[in-house]
Design goal:
Blueprint: E1 3-7, E2 39-45, H1 53-56, E3 64-65, E4 76-81, E5 84-89, E6 94-98, E7 101-105, E8 108-110, E9 121-122, E10 127-129, E11 138-141, E12 144-146, E13 150-151, E14 154-157, E15 161-168, E16 175-177, E17 181-187, E18 190-193, E19 197-210, E20 214-216, E21 222-230, E22 234-239, E23 247-251, H2 255-291, H3 298-342, E24 348-354, E25 358-362, E26 365-368, E27 373-374, E28 377-379, H4 381-395
Helix pairs in contact: 2-3
Amino acid sequence: MPYRVIQLFGKDLQPAPDADVVVDYYHSDLATPVTCGQPLARLELTAPATDTAADRQDDRRNLIINEPTEIVSATVELADKKGELLIISRKDGFPALVEQKIVVYDRLVINSDINFHTGNIDCPGDVLINGSIMAGFKVKAANLTVNGSIENAEVVSRGDLICSGGIVACNDFPLSCSGNLWAKYIENSSLEIKNNLFISGSSLHSSIKVGGSIILCHDSAILVGGKCEAGHSLYSGVIGAKWATPTEIILGCEPFLAQKLKNHCQKLKKIATELEELKDRIAQINTYLQHEEGETTSKEAHELQKERELLESKLSFTAQKHASARQECKQLEQKIAEFKKNNRDAGLHVANQLFSGVSLTIKDASTRIEEESTGVTVFDENRINREIADRDQKQR
């Protein structure tokens, strides 16, 4: 006897029932996990299939099977509960309908691009996307694997990220990865990676911050343009281009600590400005009350004294804020100095060609590459200092 399968999971894309209903085409229910013992589908006895156009219009909602066991995989089981024949999950995970079988995966598997058909994905677990992430969409996951490309999308991986294709035009929202990232190429994008970045092809005109090292894996790999900051080292086949494309490389300093220090310094500067303005205003009031004592009415004097009291109270609070912010800056400076001290092997390693026009900073030493060099080139902080000294000597 045929059974109709009524799914209890997944997203049913239906048009809005009327013009007044707002449809969020970016919303998705695909990333909803299930738990062990949760019902995934209900089987209902039905008449033999007529195979009409209406029946074929939605295969998911009109899936007909001859035997209940046809839809069962190793990750689900049949259960008869209060007269209802149910498909029950045997594990925690993410359900999917694969070749007329319900399967529960350890990670969310999406066999398409991330677009209007899927909506945005915000998944508490791992995600495998057998397609690309299209422009304007958001994907958040623990560990993320994309078998296509990522184009101008908002992507956050709380673990590792593997992108078999390229990462292109991700500038509106920096791509964030808290683990390691592997990609074929990167172009006109902004990336923030806590561990290491591995690139099999090229990096073009991108802003990259990496807590560990940047490794372009092949001798033919090229890095041109943009700004690359790495806590440790950078390895590449070619860096720069013949036309001296501006390329900035900063190594040996943890970029996220450096950014945090920069933000705290800006905050400290703003508080210091506020502090000086308060002091100036209090001084103005004091000067006015001292020199205009005979011409100031009691009401004006009272108002000025009241304002001074409020400003002095605010001054005391702002001074405490300033001291606290200054202490935070000092602590960050100490952390950065300690990081540099312990990070002795940071350097730039170029297998083939290093072109002129590259600005290189390793820890506290900086230089600009003026001449092309070939072969294996390794820079360290001492070598940069020696080059600067030699250059100064020649200029004298």
